[in-house]
Design brief:
It is a single chain. By secondary structure, this protein is of the alpha/beta class. It folds into two domains: 7-242, 3-Layer(aba) Sandwich (Rossmann fold), CATH 3.40.50; 246-273, no CATH class. 47% of the residues lie in helices and 12% in strands. Strands 2-3-1-4-5 form a five-stranded parallel beta sheet, sandwiched between helices. Strand 2, helix 3 (94-97) and strand 3 form a beta-alpha-beta unit. Helix 1 (19-43) packs parallel to helix 9 and helix 2 packs across helix 9. It is globular.
Length: 273
């Protein structure tokens, strides 16, 4: 665990990426994520991608690009909000244990168990002793998962106050985006200084070797998406050799017998078009 700076002191990526370059890089990363997912489906790997950050920081749009092209039956996106009546009164980690990935699956959490040391801390939904104890509980939770072979990737989307304001105004101005706003968003924005302190404590106390934090500077949404997908691909691809997806000769033979179909050039059997 290291000492992190206050988030507002982190440099933002201000170099825009042109549309053609963005689409090319995005497609490449999406293909790489699919290759890694297929690898985990074959080997029984389990992946947790935890995403936290400010309102209007681009988390949802990043998740949308992240899951595009993935095998849907092995991909589960969990949108975490206030606890349901059935979840209230139980330990706050209980509902996350219920959503852990099965072998061969990826679980993507849109907001995570870190709500305990963020919104619950700031809004007083739990007492001080409870949220201070949560740092140890969370580290133990993630250590248990890591020791059991689960890959954990934690992304924190950070947006500047001015950019967040402009995105919120855009939501107010466009009817089809107004559903994204609630009164709690304005309460959170008004407490930015308190959240900055809570984020710093969170990063300092829960950035571990087995479950490190990755801060995504998201004033530029396209750059943020590329950074997020690249971080996931690099983390999951470390030490992994992706086998070429060649056509099973038995399947090729069955297709030939039924339709007379055959590959025009067998050398291209493993090439993605």
């Amino acid at each position: 665990m290291g000492k992190w700076p206050i988030l507002d002191r982190i440099a933002m990526l201000d170099e825009p990426v042109d549309e053609e370059t963005y689409e090319r890089k995005l497609k490449k990363l999406q293909n790489r994520l699919l290759d890694l997912q297929i690898h985990h489906m074959r080997t029984g790997g389990r992946v947790i991608i935890g995403i936290d950050g400010w309102d209007a920081a681009g988390k949802g749009s990043a998740i949308q690009r992240m899951i595009f092209g993935l095998e849907p039956r092995s991909t589960h996106v969990w949108r975490i909000g206030a606890p349901t009546p059935a979840e209230q009164g139980r330990h706050y980690l209980w509902r996350f244990w219920e959503r852990l990935p099965a072998p061969g699956s990826w679980a993507i959490f849109d907001r995570t168990w870190y709500g305990r040391v963020l919104v619950e801390r700031i809004e007083g939904f739990c007492d001080e002793a409870a949220w201070k104890r949560a740092y140890r509980e969370i580290n133990e939770f993630e250590r248990q998962l890591s020791d059991d072979g689960v890959h954990i990737i934690k992304l924190l989307f950070h947006v500047s106050a001015e950019e967040q304001k402009q995105r919120m105004i855009e939501r107010l101005s466009k009817p089809h985006k107004r559903h994204k706003l609630g009164l709690e968003d304005f309460r959170n924005i008004a407490k930015r200084r308190q959240y900055l302190e809570a984020y710093k404590d969170m990063l300092d106390k829960t950035d571990t070797d087995h479950a490190p934090w990755h801060v995504i500077a998201s004033d530029d949404k396209k750059q943020a998406r590329l950074a997020a997908l690249g971080t996931i691909a690099d983390s999951l691809g470390r030490g992994v050799e992706i086998a070429q997806n060649v056509l099973d000769p038995r399947i090729a033979e069955a297709a030939f017998k039924l339709w007379g179909w055959q590959l025009p050039d067998r050398k291209t059997a493993g090439v993605r078009k």
